[in-house]
Amino acid sequence: MKTKEPKTVEKSSAEASEQAKHFCEVFQKLKTEIQKAFVGQDEIVENVLSVLLSDGHVLLEGVPGLGKTLLAATLSKTLNLDFSRIQFTPDLMPADIVGTMVLQETKGGGHELKFQEGPVIANFVLADEINRATPKTQSAMLEAMQERQVSVGKQTIKLPEPFIVIATQNPVEQDGTYPLPEAQLDRFMVKLTVGYPGEDDYLGILNRTTGVSVSDVKSVSTGEEIMKMRQIVREVPVSEQVQRYAVRLIMATQPGSKYASEAINKSVALGSSPRGLQSLILMGKVRALIGGRYAVSCQDLADVAVPVLRHRVMLGFEGLSSRVSPDELIKEILESVEKLSD
Predict the structure, then answer these.
(1) Beta carbons of 168 and 192 less than 8 angstroms apart
(2) In this structure, are residues 271 and 186 in contact, taking their beta carbons and an 8 Å threshold?
(3) How large is the angle between the packed helices 13-34 and 68-79, nearest 10 degrees?
């Protein structure tokens, strides 16, 4: 049986340039509006927007008080879409997330079962402190994140588009937490580490939050426009050389592969999957577009490799005992894997 070749969208250089320009304008408008409330952290904001436009999900890791929740809520305001916040706790049940069937009385005095939607049925879902819920509850998010639907009994409910999960976790407190399994970590397109603000950023935070003025975040785009921009991302061409470079980066994270270094073979138990390769390419496409280009370069992939791969490199015993970080290993991979001419 022959498989159909994927359709390619051919554009003239003028059309491609115009689309890249429009993409940059919308991206910059969203970024500017978010930064009215969320001070600093340019790279974090850019990566979250890139994931939104790549049709993925984000895992934000950082200590409390750095604005992770504020970032997610502000992003939803810029698009005027449904926002839902789920506070994950050990007693949270799957039905509390996806919804459940409830018995309701009808006008005639009878009763009927109706589905009561859970908070996951929204455009933006903030899964706050996701690692505090039990694995059973965490798994309730898997279908929503991967299939864009939830199942309750024999009923399947499609989630609204665009849909994005922004999950947060605290890397310091480990008591009463349940580490996310590899299968769920792999559903996140990127893992972003939110650090402390700089000195000037602290002053900006004070001026915007302790005075009488309140940041007025406006809606500057729509869900329909986001869906169109996602389509533009899909249409950006990627040369065979860049694809091969991406494949080699992924293989270099896998112990025993011909591109794996000695450090990877010694320290890593599990490398990235093909889903990591897909995420790398999509994030690279957005990187090219916001740079005003309608073609992906090897450097675009290198620029996004750390946030895309850091949660997909699972350390083994020797890696954990030597306290090597996935970020260090990925940076070593970027130095060892040769960029191919685009």
Answers:
(1) no
(2) no
(3) 130
pLDDT tens by residue, 111-131: 787 778 889 999 999 999 998
Could you identify the residue written with the tokens 């970032």?
71
The rounded Cα 113 to chain-centroid distance in angstroms is 35
Assign domain 11-89+122-210+219-235 one CATH number from 3.90.70.10, 3.40.50.720, 3.40.50.300, 3.40.50.10840. Answer: 3.40.50.300
Please name every residue paired with 61 in a beta bridge, in sequence order, or none if there are none: 169, 193
Check: CB of residue 159 under 8 Å from CB of residue 150. Answer: yes
CB 56 within 8 A of CB 190: yes
Burial group, residue 208, by CB count within 10 angstroms (0-12, 13-18, 19+):
middle
Cα 70 to Cα 318: distance, rounded to the nearest angstrom: 38
Interval 276-320: pLDDT, tens: 999 999 999 999 999 989 999 999 999 999 999 999 999 999 989
Radius of gyration of the chain (CA): 21
Task: Determine the Cα–Cα distance for residues 184 and 202; give it in Å rounded to an integer.
Answer: 34
Contacts of residue 78, Cβ cutoff 8 Å, sequence gap at least 6: 30, 33, 34, 217, 218, 219, 220, 221
Domain 236-342 has CATH 1.10.10.10: no
Q: Where are the domains of the chain?
A: 11-89+122-210+219-235, 236-342
Dihedral, CA of residue 23, residue 28, residue 33 and residue 38, to nearest 10: 120
Residue 244 contacts by C-beta under 8 Å, 6 or more apart in sequence? 340
Q: List the Cα angle 55/272/190 in 5-degree steps.
A: 35
Which residue type occupies 309? L
DSSP H/E element including 305: helix 298-309
